[in-house]
Amino acid sequence: MKRPTLWPAHPKPYAGELLSCWVARIAHAHGLKIQTFSQLVFGREYQLWNRDIDRGAPSWLLATLAARTGTPMRVVRSLTIAAFRRRLFWHWHSSGQLRWVAPLGIYHRTRRLHGLQFCPECLAGDDEPYFRLVWRAAVLTVCPEHQLILRDRCPRCYAAVAFHRGEMGRPHRTITRPLCRCHRCSFDLRRAPQLRFSPYSAPAGDRAIAMARTLADRDRTGLERGHLDVLHQLAKAMVSPRRSSRLLEFVRARLHAPRVLVPRGKYAFEQRGVTERHHVLQLALSLLATPSWIVEAWESGDVSYADLSRDFPDSPEWYRRLIAPLNRRARTTRVTSAKIVQSQQQNRRELLGCA
Question: What is the model's pLDDT at position 341?
Answer without folding.
Answer: 42
